[in-house]
Every structure is written in structure tokens, then in C-alpha cells.
Amino acid sequence: MSSSNFLLFSLTLLIITVLLPIPNFASASLEEANNLLKWKVSLEITNKSSLSSWMPLPMNSSASVPCTSWFGVVCNADGSIQKLNLTSSGLRGTLQEISFFLLQNLTRFDLRVNNFFGPIPPQIRLLSKLIYLDFSQNQFSGEIPPEIGSMISLEFLYLYSNNLSSSIPSSLGALTSLNVLSLYQNQLSGSIPSSVGNMSNLYRLNLAHNKLSGPIPIDLGKLKSLTRLLVSNNTLSGSIPSSIANLSNLHFLFLDMNKLSGPIPIELGNLKALTNFQVSENLLSGSIPSSLENLSDLQCMFLQKNNFSGLIPFELGNLKSLTELALSNNQLSGSIPLSLANMSNLRSLYLDWNNLSGPIPMELGNFKSLNILVQPPARHAPS
Ligand SMILES: *[C@@H]1O[C@H](CO)[C@@H](O)[C@H](O)[C@H]1NC(C)=O
Ligand SMILES: *[C@@H]1O[C@H](CO)[C@@H](O)[C@H](O)[C@H]1NC(C)=O
Ligand SMILES: *[C@@H]1O[C@H](CO)[C@@H](O)[C@H](O)[C@H]1NC(C)=O
Ligand SMILES: *[C@@H]1O[C@H](CO)[C@@H](O)[C@H](O)[C@H]1NC(C)=O
Ligand SMILES: *[C@@H]1O[C@H](CO)[C@@H](O)[C@H](O)[C@H]1NC(C)=O
Ligand SMILES: *[C@@H]1O[C@H](CO)[C@@H](O)[C@H](O)[C@H]1NC(C)=O
Ligand SMILES: *[C@@H]1O[C@H](CO)[C@@H](O)[C@H](O)[C@H]1NC(C)=O
Ligand SMILES: *[C@@H]1O[C@H](CO)[C@@H](O)[C@H](O)[C@H]1NC(C)=O
Ligand SMILES: *[C@@H]1O[C@H](CO)[C@@H](O)[C@H](O)[C@H]1NC(C)=O
Ligand SMILES: *[C@@H]1O[C@H](CO)[C@@H](O)[C@H](O)[C@H]1NC(C)=O
Ligand SMILES: *[C@@H]1O[C@H](CO)[C@@H](O)[C@H](O)[C@H]1NC(C)=O
Ligand SMILES: *[C@@H]1O[C@H](CO)[C@@H](O)[C@H](O)[C@H]1NC(C)=O
């Protein structure tokens, strides 16, 4: 807006403010209701019942109607819209016809599982009180607006299963209250910004199934609260940073289906809380570190389809919680250690396509049900 236009706009606002009675909360709410109605008109509603309660208000109505009887709408004590939840409502359309200016009291905005498409407008930054944003499982496209980085109240940001492209804006690093960042299954490219390491309250980070490239930032090792680090199925390269060993709350570490190279850092043996460790389908090499014996809660370890060499460390027999161990398609040599028979919870052991020699230890025959040397394991994919 040019400065003269801006002046005109400000003057108009001033005149309106002066001429009209000072709006009370009820009329603010009427404006907010009309904003939603305008948006509704632009939508294709495949589930007729979902927005049928969103009716134009009769002239004499009390404006609290949207608050008390509109589907998916919750207001604050002053009658302003605070929560909008249209999960799975059969809606198809865009966000072009909605005024974010009139939704500034929103704390929760949930459009999960619909057919929304087109861009996420940068004006979304106006929702400065928003704590919970879930636009997942739609067809939103274009970039993630960098302006989201100014929505510093955000604790939950779900944009997974859309068609978002371009790179992850580094401005998101300013979201220091964020607990969950879930961007999996999009078309995101470029590298993971190291500013993500500044989201000090993050406990779930899921960037899997995108087209991200470049290294895993060393700074991710600063995310002390992280319980899930999922970056499967990208084209990440470089080595696994040893800083990850500082993530002492990590349960899931999924780095599989990338182009990571170099060894597994010995320090990863410090990840005492780890239950699922997947680094399969990379270009990792070197020997399997015996320090992994210290991952005492580990249930699944998938190292298949890499270039690991050397012996299978006998120390792995100490992994008493392990139920699945996949080492297939590597360059491992030597014999199968007898100690593996000590993994009393083991159900599947995949050792095929290696350079192993010697007999299959008789002790492994003591297992009640053990699949050994069979097909590649099914992938596990938590969200
Ligand atoms: C239509 O939407 C309503 C409200 O979300 C929901 O309860 C109902 O199950 C939906 N019906 C269908 C057929 O999806
Ligand atoms: C609004 O007006 C209609 C008739 O035009 C009437 O039936 C209804 O009771 C009125 N509602 C209120 C809240 O006054
Ligand atoms: C929206 O409603 C669904 C169920 O209808 C619920 O599972 C979900 O948690 C709600 N979202 C928010 C943000 O409250
Ligand atoms: C937000 O709510 C407050 C009262 O809680 C109200 O004064 C204000 O007009 C509302 N703002 C918007 C943009 O709705
Ligand atoms: C996803 O976006 C790309 C452009 O970035 C477009 O070519 C493609 O058709 C879109 N796919 C869907 C399912 O919307
Ligand atoms: C992380 O935060 C620090 C301190 O707030 C700041 O100096 C630094 O530039 C930020 N790092 C990134 C990569 O944004
Ligand atoms: C990998 O991610 C792409 C989306 O980027 C998806 O189409 C494909 O199915 C995923 N592959 C696997 C094996 O999950
Ligand atoms: C782990 O954190 C400590 C202290 O924050 C730091 O000194 C150390 O360099 C980190 N370790 C790695 C491997 O990054
Ligand atoms: C496992 O942890 C113990 C205790 O911290 C340590 O003494 C041992 O060296 C570790 N094992 C390996 C193979 O690093
Ligand atoms: C795998 O490792 C062997 C040496 O152990 C090396 O010769 C080969 O180039 C490596 N292959 C790949 C794809 O890294
Ligand atoms: C199995 O575990 C027991 C007790 O921890 C130990 O004494 C034994 O040496 C282990 N067996 C092998 C083959 O490592
Ligand atoms: C693995 O065995 C094959 C033949 O069995 C041999 O050609 C290859 O050099 C061996 N590789 C390693 C890394 O030992």
C-alpha cells in the first residue's frame, strides 16, 4: 500500500470509528461470523451436514449464535472465535476468502483431513495467539510461508501429507515454544535449516518422505527434549553427526532411505532411551560399533542395505529388549556370534546378503519363534 493510500485507509478507519458506535463484543463477533460465512460460500461442501449450522444470522439475532450453535466453532468469554475445528468435514476450497485479521483470537485451528488446496497465505501470521495449527492431510501447495516463524505462541505445527514445496524456512527456528513439528509427506526440498536446533522445546520432529538434501545439522543435537527424530526417505547426505548422541530422551531415530555415508558414531551408544533405530538404505560404512550394546531399551535395529563391514559385534547379545535385528545386504564377515542367542525377545533376525561364514549357532534354535535369513523386514513408520 502506498503511503497516500495508507493515509486514506487510516483516515477512513478513523472516520468509521468516530461515526459508528464503539463496537461492543457482540458486534465484533457478528463480523467474525460473517467472515466465516463468506468463506463458507467459497467452499465446495461434499458432506452437506458438516457446515449446515453455519447460517446467516437474522437481523434481530444475538451474535452469540456462532458461539453456541455453529459446528466446529468455540468462542472465548467475550464472544470472539477462539477455536475452529473442521477436521474431516468433507470441505474443498482455499483459504483465499477468509480474513485472518478477523480471526486474531484463534488459539486452535484444525483443518485436518479435508481437500483444501492452494497456498497457505502469509497473512496467517496475524494469528499471533495460535497455539495449535493442524492443516495436515489436505492438498495445500506452494511454500511454507516464512511468516509462520513470527507466530511465537505455536506449540503444535502439523502440515504433513500436503503438497508443500520449496525449502523449510529458517525463520521457523524462532518458534521456541514449539513441541511438535510435523512436515512429513510433502515435496519439501533444500536443506534442513540449522535454526531448527533453536526450537528448544521440540519433542517430535518429523521431516520424513520429502526431497530434503544436504547434511543433518549438527545443531539438532541441542534439542534435548526430542523423543522422535524422523527424516526417513529424503536425500540427506554427509555423515551422522555425533551431536545426536546428546539427545538423551530420543526413542525413535529414523534416518533410513537417505544418502548418508561414513560410520555410525560410537557415541550413539549413549542414547539410553532409544527403542527404534533405523539407518537402513544409506551408504553407511565401517564396522557396527560395539557401544550399541548399551542401548538397553532397543526393540528394533534396522541397519540393512548399507556397506557395513567387519564382524557382527558379540556385544549385541546384550540387547535383551531387541525383537528385530536386520543386518542384511551389507559386507559383514566372520561367523554369527553365539551371544545372539542371549537376546531372549528376538523374533526376527535378518542376516542375508552378507559375507558371513560358519554355521548358524545351535543356540539360536532355542527361540520359540525366530525368523532368520528371510525377506527384508517391513518398515515401521510412526508419525
Ligand atoms: C459429515 O460431517 C459430520 C461432522 O463432521 C460427521 O459427523 C459425519 O460423520 C460426516 N459424514 C460423512 C458421511 O462423512
Ligand atoms: C427474530 O425475529 C423473528 C421473526 O422475524 C422471530 O420469530 C424471532 O423470535 C426473533 N428472535 C429473537 C431472538 O428475537
Ligand atoms: C478437533 O476435533 C477432533 C474430533 O472431532 C479431535 O480429535 C481433535 O483433537 C480436535 N482438534 C482440536 C485442535 O481440538
Ligand atoms: C479478541 O477478543 C477480544 C476480547 O477477548 C476482543 O476485544 C477483540 O475485539 C477480539 N479481536 C478480534 C480480532 O476478534
Ligand atoms: C503438487 O504440486 C506440484 C507443483 O509443485 C504439481 O505439479 C502437482 O500437480 C501437485 N500435486 C497435487 C496432487 O496437487
Ligand atoms: C539460534 O538462536 C541464537 C540465540 O537466540 C541466535 O544467536 C542464532 O543465530 C540462532 N541460530 C540460528 C541458526 O538461527
Ligand atoms: C518416499 O517419499 C515419497 C514422497 O516424497 C513417496 O512418494 C514415496 O512413496 C516414499 N517411499 C517410501 C518407500 O515410503
Ligand atoms: C553434547 O553436549 C555437550 C554439552 O552441551 C557438549 O559439550 C558436547 O560437545 C555435545 N556433544 C556432542 C557430541 O556434540
Ligand atoms: C557401555 O557402557 C558402559 C557404562 O557406561 C561402558 O563402561 C562401556 O564401555 C560401554 N560399552 C561400549 C562397548 O562402549
Ligand atoms: C563398500 O565398502 C568397500 C570396502 O569395504 C568399498 O570397496 C566399496 O567401495 C564400498 N561401496 C560403497 C558403495 O560405498
Ligand atoms: C549370555 O548371558 C549370560 C549372562 O548374562 C552370560 O554369562 C553368557 O556369557 C552370555 N552368553 C554368550 C554366548 O554371550
Ligand atoms: C565377500 O565375498 C565375496 C565372495 O564370496 C567376495 O568377492 C568379496 O570380496 C567379499 N567382500 C568382502 C568385503 O569381504
UniProtKB/TrEMBL annotation:
It comes from the Eukaryota. Keywords: Cell membrane, Glycoprotein, Leucine-rich repeat, Membrane, Repeat, Signal, Transmembrane, Transmembrane helix. Residues 243-356 form the Disease resistance R13L4/SHOC-2-like LRR domain. InterPro entries: Leu-rich_rpt, Leu-rich_rpt_typical-subtyp, LRR_dom_sf, LRR_N_plant-typ, LRR_R13L4/SHOC2-like, PRK1-6/SRF4-like. It is a single-pass type I membrane protein. Residues 1-28 form the signal peptide. Its main location: membrane. GO terms for biological process: defense response; post-embryonic development; response to other organism. GO terms for cellular component: plasma membrane. Pfam families: LRR_1, LRR_14, LRRNT_2. Residues 31-76 form the Leucine-rich repeat-containing N-terminal plant-type domain. This is Leucine-rich repeat-containing N-terminal plant-type domain-containing protein. It comes from Lactuca saligna (Willowleaf lettuce).
